[in-house]
Structure formats: structure tokens, C-alpha cells
């Protein structure tokens, strides 16, 4: 299945690798690497950021999720824009803005300026991520080849988890939190160089964009994520107002979608066998991963007094598997389809979340945390590439960008829920006379339950095993 955005040059025959295709895949993967490293690098800088700008835990949540709120709200529109105006245009503009926004973030004078700039980065990332998947769909029209290409994309981008915390810890030790944003500038320049050329370019699509529906979708997702953050930071009135606004705009969106000739969310995509379960699985995987990324630096630096660099090293059991294992996952998906890798990954995430929570509850040393970290790392590296391959392969003709945007948007909502939920438990743990990690341990039951439910839904629709062969 291919996107309607056919390349300007002739599509290569199956099994061939035209000049420049590998370079283009490397550039596309680097773009997503840059988007992900912006999250993982900042996680290690949280304590230094709080000291430098005088931020509370709630302020850290906004600095962390100011990026994901805008990213989640705009990803659906980013996918539609990619399909309509050309994925290569969306990619290159998004990457250029991301590089400039990162440079400005390094010189932010206060917390709320940083939060605003993080929103700009989220908007740029929303244009970039769906475009990467749309271009891969065009460059690799054969499902088995596409599964392998997605695995390369996932491995390169997943290495952001491995080097992000380590690099972030090194940069924070050397020059504070501001240095972590500067790494994006050369990455943006490298991406623009690698994605230059006719192979990546494509004509505009023919599918129109329903702008009122797109704006309603953006506002609904934005208010929903804002409500979740406010709830996690202990602001029930704020959360209720944002939640009510999300419900009202969601109702408007539903009415607009029923009359739209170009709906924001493709009904055909949602009706495809197993797709709702796969989308929920995407949210659950990101919930588990992001929640742990948010919690671990606070646990290690505030309670154990570890340095930023040591904290970055402590991430390695969780961050190394996503940088190497997706290549194996791609081969498995190409041979047997995505269902078994998705199920295996979700079960590993359930195990990892429970093991991590049990170790924290028991007051175990760092070695006791590594089992949970390893299981989560391998769980993400099995589930995520298979989820991406399944969703973009199932996407109706001409909607690869929108399908990738939908999956990415739902994943970012899962990330926001993870940070909001874990932030709430951090606040509870710090509210007493003595700081306690016990609430963080019990918090791990939430991602474990979400991943278990997703595994049940995916298992019910075994037809997805035919995808990606």
C-alpha cells in the first residue's frame, strides 16, 4: 500500500536500492532522532533547570510537556498538511524551525519563555514526524521492505534514548541545562543536507484540508492535554475548565467530521481490523516510557544525590535496547507481521513497570531497578516499530502522513498523561514532612494496567498478523 504522493522520479523496483535512497532514509531518521533527543536530553537537566529558573515540580511539568502539548495538538494537522502540500516540504520547514527554536531556547531568560519556545519546537516537530513516515512509505512501497526501513528509522531515532540522557548529563555537568538545546542545531543542519535532492521530493497531494475541523481537532487535543497536566499538578479548577472546553470542542469536531469531505481522522483507517487496539497500544507504550523517563532523574538526583552524568549512565539499561533491537524487530515484522512483536513488547512493558515499582517500594539499590529498566527498554523496541509498520501499511491510499500523524498524536497524548500522572505522584511524595518514593512505586501500576489492556485488545484482532508481510 502506498501513499498518493508518488515521487517525482520513477519508483524503484522491489529489491533494488537506487542511489540516494539510503542517504534519504538516514536523513529522515536523523530528523526523528532530533525530535526525540529533545525530550530525553531535557529529562536529565530537570534538577538543574529547577535550580536555575526557580521552578517547582509543576513548572518542570510545563517545561517538559509544553513541547508535547503542542506536538500532540498539531500532529493530526501536520499529517494532513504533509499529504496535501508535500511531505518533503513539511519535513524541511519543520527541521529548519526546530533548529532555530532550539538555538533560541538555549538563551531563554525565564521559565515561561522556555515553555513558549518549547511550544514552537512542538509545532515544528508536528510538521516533521508525519512527513518522515510519509516519505518512507513512498520510498519503500513493498510492505516487507517498508518494515525493514521503519526498523532502521526506529533504531536510529531510538538511539536518542541511549545517547540523550548520557549526552544531556555530560552537557549539564559542563555548562548547565542551556547547553542541552544546542545539540539540535547541528542535527538540523545535517538533516537538511541529507534530505536534499530529487528522490525525497514529491508533488502536492489532491486531498483537500478541512481547516475548521483541523482547528477544532488541534484545540480539542490542546485543551485535553492541558487538563491532564493541570490535574496532575493539583489544579482541579483549571483542569475542570480545560476539560469542559475539550468536551465542547470535541462535540463540535464530531459534528464537523460527519459533514466533512476531508475528515481529520479517516473513518476507513479506524474501521481497519485491529487499528483501534494498535492506537491504544501506541499511547500505552509511550505512557510507560515517558513516565519512567520523567521519574527516574528525580529519584536518582533528588533522593540519591547522583550527578547528571551518572544519572545519564543510569538510563542505559532502558535506553540501549531501542537503539539496536528495532533492526531485529523489523526482520520479524517482515516475516510474520507485527502482532506478535507488539504483544511481546506490551507484556515486557507490563513486567518492567511492575518490577521497577516493586524495586522502588522495597528501597532496592540501583541494581534492583535494572530488571524493570531492561524490560521496558526491550518492550519499547519490540512494540513501537511493529506498531508504526502496522498503522502506515493499513492506511488508505494517500493518507500515510495522516495515519502517521494520528499514531504520533495519540502517542504524545499518552506521553502527556504519563508526565501528568507521575508528576502528581511526585507532588504527593514531596508533600509530607519527609520526601517519599513510595507513591512513585504505586504509580507504576497505571502504565502496567494500560499496557495489559492494550495487549488484550491487540490479541483479539489477530488479522493484523497479515500486515507487513
UniProtKB/TrEMBL annotation:
Location of the protein in the cell: Cell membrane
Membrane topology note: Multi-pass membrane protein
CDD domains in alphabetical order: MFS_MMR_MDR_like (cd17321)
Transmembrane segments: 24-42, 62-81, 93-114, 120-140, 152-171, 177-199, 211-231, 277-300, 342-364, 370-392, 413-433, 439-459
Keyword match Transmembrane helix: yes
Entries under Gene3D superfamilies matching the protein: MFS general substrate transporter like domains, Multidrug resistance protein D
Swiss-Prot/TrEMBL keywords: Antibiotic resistance, Membrane, Transmembrane, Transmembrane helix, Transport
Domain of life: Bacteria
InterPro entries to which the protein is assigned, alphabetical: MFS, MFS_dom, MFS_trans_sf
PANTHER family: MAJOR FACILITATOR SUPERFAMILY MULTIDRUG TRANSPORTER MFSC
UniProt protein name: MFS transporter
Native organism: Streptacidiphilus cavernicola
Amino acid at each position: 500500500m502506498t501513499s498518493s504522493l508518488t515521487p517525482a522520479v520513477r519508483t524503484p523496483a522491489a529489491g533494488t536500492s537506487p542511489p540516494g535512497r539510503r542517504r534519504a532514509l538516514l536523513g529522515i531518521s536523523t530528523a526523528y532522532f532530533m525530535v526525540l533527543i529533545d525530550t530525553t536530553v531535557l529529562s536529565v537537566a530537570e534538577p538543574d533547570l529547577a535550580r536555575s529558573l526557580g521552578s517547582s515540580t509543576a513548572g518542570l511539568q510545563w517545561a517538559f510537556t509544553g513541547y508535547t502539548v503542542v506536538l500532540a495538538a498539531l500532529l493530526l494537522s501536520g499529517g494532513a498538511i504533509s499529504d496535501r502540500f508535500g511531505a518533503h516540504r513539511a519535513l524541511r520547514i519543520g527541521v529548519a524551525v526546530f533548529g532555530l527554536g532550539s538555538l533560541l531556547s538555549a538563551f531563554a531568560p525565564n521559565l515561561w519563555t522556555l515553555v513558549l519556545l518549547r511550544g514552537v519546537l512542538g509545532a515544528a516537530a508536528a510538521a516533521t514526524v508525519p512527513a518522515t513516515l510519509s516519505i518512507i512509505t513512498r520510498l519503500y512501497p513493498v510492505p516487507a521492505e517498508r518494515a525493514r526501513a521503519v526498523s532502521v528509522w526506529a533504531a536510529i531515532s531510538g538511539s536518542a534514548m541511549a545517547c540523550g540522557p548520557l549526552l544531556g548529563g555530560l552537557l549539564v555537568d559542563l555548562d548547565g541545562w542551556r547547553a542541552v538545546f544546542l545539540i539540535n542545531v547541528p542535527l538540523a543542519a545535517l538533516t537538511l543536507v541529507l534530505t536534499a535532492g530529487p528522490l525525497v521530493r514529491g508533488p502536492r497531494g489532491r486531498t483537500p484540508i478541512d481547516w475548521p475541523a483541523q482547528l477544532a481537532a488541534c484545540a480539542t487535543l490542546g485543551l485535553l492535554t492541558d487538563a491532564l497536566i493541570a490535574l496532575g499538578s493539583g489544579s482541579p479548577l483549571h483542569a475542570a475548565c480545560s476539560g469542559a472546553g475539550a468536551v465542547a470542542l470535541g462535540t463540535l469536531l464530531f459534528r464537523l467530521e460527519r459533514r466533512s469531505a476531508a475528515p481529520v481522522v479517516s473513518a476507513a483507517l479506524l474501521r481497519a481490523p485491529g487499528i483501534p487496539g494498535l492506537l491504544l497500544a501506541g499511547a500505552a507504550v509511550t505512557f510507560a516510557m515517558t513516565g519512567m523517563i520523567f521519574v527516574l532523574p528525580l529519584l536518582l538526583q533528588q533522593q540519591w544525590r547522583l550527578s547528571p552524568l551518572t544519572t545519564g549512565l543510569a538510563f542505559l539499561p532502558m535506553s540501549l535496547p531501542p537503539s539496536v533491537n528495532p533492526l531485529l524487530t523489523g526482520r520479524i515484522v517482515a516475516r510474520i507481521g507485527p502482532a506478535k512483536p507488539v504483544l511481546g513488547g506490551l507484556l515486557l512493558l507490563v513486567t518492567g513497570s511492575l518490577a521497577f515499582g516493586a524495586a522502588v517500594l522495597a528501597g532496592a539499590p540501583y541494581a534492583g531497578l535494572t530488571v524493570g529498566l531492561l524490560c521496558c527498554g526491550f518492550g519499547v523496541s519490540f512494540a513501537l516499530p511493529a506498531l508504526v509498520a502496522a498503522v502506515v501499511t493499513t492506511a488508505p491510499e494517500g493518507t500515510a502522513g495522516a495515519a502517521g500523524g494520528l499514531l504520533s498524536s495519540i502517542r504524545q497524548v499518552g506521553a502527556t498523561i504519563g508526565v501528568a500522572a507521575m508528576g502528581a505522584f511526585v507532588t504527593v511524595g514531596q508533600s509530607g514532612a519527609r520526601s517519599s518514593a513510595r507513591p512513585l512505586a504505586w504509580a507504576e501500576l497505571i502504565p502496567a494496567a494500560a499496557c495489559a489492556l492494550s495487549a488484550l485488545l491487540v490479541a483479539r484482532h489477530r488479522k493484523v498478523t497479515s500486515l507487513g508481510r
